[in-house]
Structure prediction request, 79 residues.
Amino acid sequence: MRLMKQLLIEKKYMKGLNNDWTQVYIEMGSRDKKTNKLKYYKVTSFNHKRFSCSCPSYEFGRGSECKHIKNLKRKLSIW
Prediction:
């Protein structure tokens, strides 16, 4: 099984109540049927404990984990 290399686009330390490390990754989505182009989504990690994604599945799924978050956790070996 071939793993795609994740792309870390932003890593910063946010000072706030939780002092979270915030990391933003790009994950590859599925291919668009009309244009035949790949879609890419931003997956944000907070201390590798909380995750959010910019895909429609995560937004409409009431915050449940989408396949992009699961793939990123698998790549980072966080289960």
Notes: The first strand starts at residue 7 and ends at 13. The beta strands are 7-13, 21-31, 38-46, 50-53. Residues 28 and 40 are 5 Å apart (CA to CA).
